[in-house]
Prior knowledge:
Structural class of chain A: alpha/beta
Number of domains of chain C: 2
Strand content of chain C: 25-35%
CATH architecture of the largest domain in chain C: Alpha-Beta Complex
Oligomer: heterotetramer
Largest sheet of chain A: 8 strands, parallel
Radius of gyration of chain A: 22 Å
CATH topology of the largest domain in chain C: Spore Coat Polysaccharide Biosynthesis Protein SpsA, Chain A
Largest sheet of chain C: 7 strands, mixed
CATH superfamily of the largest domain in chain C: Spore Coat Polysaccharide Biosynthesis Protein SpsA, Chain A
Largest interface: A-C, 37 and 37 residues
Amino acid sequence: MSQNMLAMILAGGRGSRLKDLTNKVAKPAVSFGGKYRIVDFPLSNCANSGIDVVGVLTQYESVLLNSYVAAGRRWGLDSKDSGVFVLPPREKADERLNVYRGTADAISQNIDFIDSYEPEYLLILSGDHIYKMDYDAMLTYHKERGANLTVAVIPVPMKEASRFGIMNTDEEGNIVEFEEKPAQPKSNLASMGIYIFTWKDLRRALVADMRASDSSHDFGKDIIPAFLADGKKLVAYKFQGYWKDVGTIDSLWEANMDLLDDRGELNMNDTSWKIYTDDASALPQYIGPDTQVDHAYITQGAVVLGDVRHSVLSTGVVVEEGAKVIDSVLLPGVRVEAGAKVTRALVAENITIGKGAVVGDAGSENITLVAKRVKGVE
Amino acid sequence: MSQNMLAMILAGGRGSRLKDLTNKVAKPAVSFGGKYRIVDFPLSNCANSGIDVVGVLTQYESVLLNSYVAAGRRWGLDSKDSGVFVLPPREKADERLNVYRGTADAISQNIDFIDSYEPEYLLILSGDHIYKMDYDAMLTYHKERGANLTVAVIPVPMKEASRFGIMNTDEEGNIVEFEEKPAQPKSNLASMGIYIFTWKDLRRALVADMRASDSSHDFGKDIIPAFLADGKKLVAYKFQGYWKDVGTIDSLWEANMDLLDDRGELNMNDTSWKIYTDDASALPQYIGPDTQVDHAYITQGAVVLGDVRHSVLSTGVVVEEGAKVIDSVLLPGVRVEAGAKVTRALVAENITIGKGAVVGDAGSENITLVAKRVKGVE
Amino acid sequence: MAKIFGIVASSAPFIKVEGMQDYRPIAAFSFIGRYRIVDFPISNMSNSDIDYIQVYMGNKPRSLTEHLGSGRTFNINSKRGKLQMLFPQGSSVNEIYNTDISAYMENLEIIQRMHQDYVVIAPSYMIYTQNYADLVEEHISSGADITLLYHRVDNAKEAFLNCFILNLNRQKGVISLEKNIGKAKNRDIFMDTYVMKKDLFIQLVQEAKKESSMFTLADIVSASAADLDIRGVAHRGYFAAVTDFKSYFDANLALLDHKLAENLFRPDWTIYTRTTDSCPTTYCTGASVKNSIVSNGCLIQGIVENSVIGRGVTIEKGAVVRNSVILSYAQIGPDVHIEGQVVDKWAKVIRAKEIIADPAAPGYIRRSDNL
Amino acid sequence: MAKIFGIVASSAPFIKVEGMQDYRPIAAFSFIGRYRIVDFPISNMSNSDIDYIQVYMGNKPRSLTEHLGSGRTFNINSKRGKLQMLFPQGSSVNEIYNTDISAYMENLEIIQRMHQDYVVIAPSYMIYTQNYADLVEEHISSGADITLLYHRVDNAKEAFLNCFILNLNRQKGVISLEKNIGKAKNRDIFMDTYVMKKDLFIQLVQEAKKESSMFTLADIVSASAADLDIRGVAHRGYFAAVTDFKSYFDANLALLDHKLAENLFRPDWTIYTRTTDSCPTTYCTGASVKNSIVSNGCLIQGIVENSVIGRGVTIEKGAVVRNSVILSYAQIGPDVHIEGQVVDKWAKVIRAKEIIADPAAPGYIRRSDNL
């Protein structure tokens, strides 16, 4: 069955800046927003954009990620010709088991998979951004402009531009130059790491790149420069809306906090563009008789018997009597025992904060990551 | 969600005795019986035995196998708590990407996956046998006998016993000795490579085996002998019925031919124990106006305009006018052009036998594997 | 294990929930926000490894059809098993003819073709958990012809008024079934749950049909009490029957007792339901929520106490909701005060500033109403 | 691309297929063994990227409900889209009231809630392929209010007798719709397929209801021909309408022309259907099969010519089947000779040794019959 556009999600990296959160799970599988995982965003965007087949390129500790995304039913990607396919590096007849040497190499090693669907276009995504985007609208733009490659860009404040890959464009939105983290940025259009390639063009470039001994096999470092050098048509597709890289504990916490701004820029309640996820078999949330819940984002399966202020509570979280949770994100299964106090913290899955314990610091610049059981205070 | 019994299918090997058939697909994904793939048998057996979660341990060129088994809907293994999970070797936080060093090591490396389901029992299967078996009945036997390990065995002719792993049992069916391919077999009970372990016992043995530097990390060579040495209770579960290892071209051809014996020992038409597979979107088969079809097993999507005798025709096979197919197995997408003749051959997927060409030999001892396009004769 | 198939019966025509039932069968009623009543019998069966389940649809089957889907939601293997929906054939003008027996007669060919030996029949208007595999084991080892599940209650004078009661002898043999007309407090309420062999079931259905066009399965079982070995098995744990509007309201609010809720929803006995992919609920600054069950997708800006809030409900600033059951997507406008109400799906209460009833006689606001 | 939702209409009450229709709606009729007629409109929609499809169910919805499932079979994303089954509310005693309009009126709230701008309405008793996305594009660029799909035929005297014909002007404007009563050979048969804006559709439904309780959508469209810009678009390719028993028989056998079948079933336009997981078919020694379409799961020991054989059919030794349509799981016993018949599902012809009819007036053997 041929598909017009296939999506490939680069889910590889260890995500070591997320520290102990990624000891047991790959970054895209990290919990987010009470009931979601980060990878739900690109996958739901694919489903809502009418994409049927998604490849997920994994490498590091991917068993949870694999089994999570393989159940494509969560995003409706399990109908007759649809599927979410996990693509780890694999042993071939003529070579030993490989690892992916770079983002472009991850695609190169799966050319046979992609070819089997005979796509006209290939959409490349990364697995660690929070945003909602209609890739079909981007494809329409790619076709209208007759581009070989369309890169989604988002305007960032000029003073932060040097932290990003910057696309310098002409008046018509053609990309004339790409600079990775330029010291002196000429533009504030940051690459979102979202590419639509005309497949036959990318395929040719990948085959050449595989043979190039000096290549780092990376889209930003090798493929885009090669496209530019070859005089290919590269256009920038400007995205408006919420978009956040959640590569650090602080940015992950911030993105969670942004959800408290209900019906905000990232409107999770918009039924025309839902984010789908695994549906936990949990009771609705229960708010006890003697609690204060002031500005909170809470999901089913949470039991709140203590006080919660300006916080995000995930599935199965229990806040016991007299406990206080302030400016914090509690990931699934966290238990805050009676009288404990959690402030400005991100508490990892299934962690218990013992009776009367105090974690986090209202005055600290950084968010406290709590990834180990905290003993109670007698 | 805890599961009573998890199944793990060892799908790893290259299957090099299947020669060019496994250049592009792993052995369990090889086509069989017109519309099936070999791995449909253990997976359908799991579904019909009420097993919800199946892990598939892959290594070699597994992209087709991965994407095939990951769509668990084919076997109904996609309901709320079900799934077919592809488990390749993977990079962990503390070590580099591993390969599976043996059958037992493949399980050892996935202890965390198995533990997450808290199973009481673990069923180990291999991915290259054709048979129908109720694993739930075997589990009942395992529990009744209070065994630590139950091994499914099948009686083989005594003179062939030295080709198998042989289980020597006492009168009560307890396994007292295991001999791999014994020169002087004491029994004709061959191991089918199907094990039910009480998980906590196997888990302990695997942890020990991982540390043993002299171990080959193999169930037959290491784990079973260790169980025997430890005085664990090992029982043999006698299986009656059709069972065939399809590890060579000849045995694969034979197993296909066995299907011509309709409603035979392996009754594919038994609606109480269906073998599920991918459903091709194909027309029903069409038999042309001027053909002879004499003893054939043909599936939907085949178009027969020539003559077919004692053969198996898969999805999308076309036999053109005047062509003859005799004692042969045509895998999906094979086209036998006008006037060509195929005898005693197994023709690989999507191969075309050109006009008037002649392949195979009625008198040869071995089956001819046709894995490359055969040119027509003008 | 014995081979069992399940039947989820449609509620009898004499059971009427005013208002709510105009829009959907009781089976499709929302329960504590997230569930529908039919989730309980189906999850009980699925968890008991019964993977072939027939659900008899009543009138207005659309919402129930969508909710049930292919059964994947309920962890039923769609290849090995089947969640089959069976429809009444052109419902009779006079609904006294719409008995369970007539539904079974219409689908007798399908029932006869089942290869399982035993059938468990469960109601779609009662809420309880029960391991049916265990019940069938008990049935088989007792040697009974029919096993009926019952629940001992001490409030049969004012509750369970449309249910049957079992009259049992000392050996738990069933002497007869009779309608509960509130004569005594302590009664053994029949949970409309049967275990028997498939063949006996078919025989009883055919006999009932011969006897009278108005005969129900309960009637023929009662009439057979002298001839067959019919036994009662007591059920323990949470049990509610939705037989009228008040019992629906009470069954929801009863689960505000969180201990009771944890008793009904045990980790080893999942109650499955269809997801709507709604996002978590937002509690705004100024909201105050006490002793309430809240579903996902809500926006809460007002005061909520002792209430059950369904999915996607909006409770605006200054609104007060007490002792109420608010169904999905309802909207309670600013400064509106609601007490002792069931507010049906999509209803909007904006202009009516005070709708207050005693929870002993709760009020009802119709679906999609604008007040 | 314009946002479109699809409606698959239930066949009108005046369309009757004797025999077959006693057991299932025409939508659920088997077609060349493997398919059901409803597969065509749904696959056409799915392939046109229409992922929200309403199917209006007629009487006896069970088999159709099971066939449709959640829509996954038809490659519809179950999250983004929906294959929704809508049921008639207690069918009227007098079936002239069971119009398409009354079904739409009953579900008007759901239709109004759709967020798509355009609707494509397709019949469930006609077999053809059509890219609806292209048709909607054509509709939009033409500026028409309503676009109707039609097929030019040259056998309207003897076929398509229950269909409407379009009277078109030179610009393909629709002057009127009328019933085909076989007056002329060359006619533009209306394919019961409409494109219009959702709002206009709702308006027409409401007008039709006001006009007369017996008005159909075709009636109100015909009545609006003077006021609205209604245009015809010609369809090319295979087209069949199952409006009576003979047309059902003919539509099946017509596809024995393998070139015609390849024209209807193109590789880039998959017709989806639900799998039954049946195994391949066994042709035994001594069997002889010529010019026939054979489904999976059959056991063929006899002679089959110019016939369509459904799934799991058994044709025993010495049996002869010619010019016939054998539906699933039927059994043709030893030495039985069948010609010009439709043998319905599960029928067994064992004792009747010769059942022969002229294909011009084919015979029918009822479902589950034993002959």
